[in-house]
Amino acid sequence: MNLTDSPEDTVRISTRSATEPGQPIGLILCAVSTTRLPFSRLQLFDFLRYIQNRAKIMEGRSIGNSIHELTHIANGGSHSGNCISLFRIDHAQPIQGPSSSSQIAEYVLQESYSNECESVIAYSTMEVGRVLARTDPSTTPILPLGFVMVPINQTSCSTAECSTSTGNIRQDPGCLLTVGVQALASTNPDDDLNLDAAITISKMMI
């Protein structure tokens, strides 16, 4: 469904009932939006692969004091960013005053991949206990979100999308960026959609 009747509203909302292992049990709220940006898809791919950059544009904040890549597995292709990574983010949260703080760890699993025609980034936070316990990954509940980037000019779909056959630099027409977000709206799979939850998730994408 569309949230408003405005033709400029590009956020689409849907729901699904989740009852299978590998995802939170309950009513899952999904939001998707596509927009055109005046940057090449490879520029956006390299920018959005970094957690710190995503937090600044989607949440308007710095995401933590330090980010550590615990695991890095290449998953093919010619782009150096094609990989699966597990990150630990250490957040400093004051307890009693400016001189006292405790470290709160958050884990993010991310896959990024780019080929000649598209670039994809998918990621999700993970429960710390399950990561450390090394439980069966198929039973770990995650809700992936992420981005898909495709060039505007699909007829010139190549890694050298900013140059002509003669090697001359031309104006890049930009790319289409699709953002997909999921959230647990209710722990009851049979619940109806709450409008407040739909508005909250859509604000992340505007």
Automatic annotation (TrEMBL):
<protein>
    <recommendedName>
        <fullName>HD-Zip IV C-terminal domain-containing protein</fullName>
    </recommendedName>
</protein>
<dbReference type="InterPro" id="IPR057993">
    <property type="entry name" value="HD-Zip_IV_C"/>
</dbReference>
<dbReference type="Pfam" id="PF25797">
    <property type="entry name" value="PDF2_C"/>
</dbReference>
<dbReference type="InterPro" id="IPR042160">
    <property type="entry name" value="HD-Zip_IV"/>
</dbReference>
<feature type="domain" description="HD-Zip IV C-terminal">
    <location>
        <begin position="4"/>
        <end position="204"/>
    </location>
</feature>
